[in-house]
Design brief:
- The structure is a single chain.
- This protein is mainly α and about 500 residues long.
- Helices cover about 65% and strands about 0% of the residues.
Length: about 500
């Protein structure tokens, strides 16, 4: 491609003609042309006051946006595809990421020239927002920081005008997100984003046509990152205004069979719950829809679900369910319903999960950790579950080889802390079970020849919990006698159980 340093303005409109001939599937040609455009913009003084040059610059920007935001090569392969999708090597990923960095640099050059108008603003923001998650395979550190810098500059000028910013968000949802989800809308929703009273049965889509009905999954996976970015920008007023545009894509992602997409859906919902008005969830009937959608995920356990997939899904689901419950039932009038919902999550999810997969230490660690979150959310109402939770902590702390995995010990001690803080009125009744687990674990760690730093930290936490128990029950004459008996039997407990 011809380039003219410093004074070759007459050749710039010809760039558009060259770009229009480049095949969208030819990655090599795309990269070469992007490099040439960047070289031209870096070495030429572009006069956008000339109509032809400004029009050409706008067209270059549009082409660059399309070339840079294309992520089909990184999408997962559709089931029963006519032709197998070629596997991208690590070298090819590096090349494609480099191409996208070049495209973003071109957009940065054009941004400095202030050629963007509002008509192209949404397309530009969608392109930049696609690079706001470093976990995405098409996003490198260079593209991430470049996109963040450009977004800050671009959005900063738009956010000052609330109407203009609201219009931008609407265009992103209406023109960029919605079209990709049109063919996979959940049947439980009305067109207004409310719960359908009598939903029709979902349309069965043959597996070999799934790629056509889910372009967001098989052609444009970057739209999930764009959608996440949009949700982060919303406030309560905007959520209510754009509710019909937000909910169908969100439920579609949550309902997908892919576990990574279920996790992504949980993350999206959790972001939305930070700003959604509780009344909107109830008026639309979607509070119960979200709850019913998430609850089955609590039983995605080994061995039916691989542990590597189960752990992140369970972690995201429990966090989202807790956020959903606390958001739905904020008012004092709904406190009893909140407690019933938390009871169901604890019984159906954590206790069932521990029964079925408690022998997997990483699963057990996660479930014990989420038990702590539930106890803290319930407050004093957690006492009804002590008969189920305390045996779990006791079995963990007294296990013969418990010291082999300190993280599970630490989470068990943290759960006991939460139980003591929230359920202290029942502490005296359960003191024997609590003391048994803590003392056995403490003595085993003490007997370790060379305890690791993690075990030392667990030992210190146990000492803190024991001191709290002793102080809380110091007026109980029966406990004082029991502690004295323990000190007489084992001199190592002399200072540990001192009243």
């Amino acid at each position: 491609m011809e380039t003219s340093p410093n004074t070759g303005l007459q050749s710039f409109p010809n760039i558009v003609q060259r770009l229009s001939k480049v095949s969208e599937s030819n990655e090599k040609q795309i990269h070469e042309n992007l490099v040439a455009v960047e070289a031209y913009l870096s070495n030429s003084i572009l006069d956008i006051s000339i109509p032809d040059h400004r029009a050409a610059a706008n067209q270059v920007q549009d082409w660059t946006i399309n070339a840079t935001s294309s992520t089909e090569a990184f999408a997962q392969e559709a089931p029963y595809a006519a032709e197998p999708k070629p596997v991208i090597s690590s070298q090819e990923i590096v090349k494609r990421c480099s191409t996208k960095v070049t495209g973003l640099r071109i957009l940065a050059h054009l941004q400095d020239l202030h050629i963007s108008n509002f008509d192209s603003s949404a397309a530009l923001v969608a392109c930049l927002a696609a690079f706001t998650d470093l976990k995405d395979p098409w996003t490198s550190e260079d593209s991430y920081y470049l996109a963040q810098s450009m977004l800050t500059k671009h959005i900063g000028s738009v956010k000052d005008d609330s109407k203009l910013f609201d219009r931008l968000i609407k265009e992103l949802l209406l023109d960029h997100v919605k079209p990709l989800f049109l063919k996979s809308k959940p049947s439980v929703l009305t067109d207004q984003g409310r719960k359908a009273i009598a939903p029709l049965p979902g349309t069965a889509v043959p597996s070999d046509f799934e790629s056509g009905s889910k372009p967001w999954k098989f052609q444009s996976p970057h739209i999930l990152t764009v959608f996440y970015w949009v949700l982060e920008q919303l406030n309560g007023t905007m959520v209510e205004k754009h509710w019909p545009l937000i909910i169908p894509p969100l439920l579609t992602i949550l309902d997908d069979v892919s576990i990574p997409l279920k996790i992504r859906g949980c993350q999206l919902l959790k972001i939305l719950l930070k700003v959604v008005p509780p009344s909107l969830l109830e008026r639309s009937g979607l509070g119960s829809v979200f709850h019913d959608t998430l609850m089955p995920y609590l039983l995605f356990l080994p061995s039916l679900t691989p542990e590597e997939e189960s752990i992140p899904l369970l972690n995201a689901t429990y966090d989202t369910l807790l956020s959903l419950t606390l958001t739905r039932y904020k008012s004092p009038e709904t406190k009893s319903t909140k407690i019933k919902t938390l009871d169901a999550i604890l019984r159906y999810g954590i206790l069932n999960g521990y029964t079925h997969a408690g022998e997997k230490v990483r699963i057990a660690e996660l479930l014990v950790k989420k038990s702590t979150d539930m106890v803290n959310a319930m407050g004093i109402y957690c006492v009804k579950h002590l008969k189920d939770l305390l045996p779990i902590t006791s079995s963990v702390l007294t296990a013969p080889f418990a010291t082999a995995y300190p993280p599970l010990l630490d989470e068990s001690v943290q759960l006991l802390k939460a139980i003591i803080v929230n359920g202290w009125p029942r502490l005296a009744f359960h003191r024997a079970e609590i003391l048994e687990g803590l003392l056995i674990c403490w003595t085993r760690i003490r007997e370790e020849n060379e305890p690791t730093n993690a075990l030392v930290a667990v030992k210190e936490n146990i000492e803190d919990v024991l001191h709290a128990v002793v102080q809380l029950l110091s007026d109980d004459q029966g406990l004082r006698e029991e502690l004295q008996l323990l000190r007489d039997c084992d001199s190592r407990l002399e200072t540990l159980l001192k009243v």
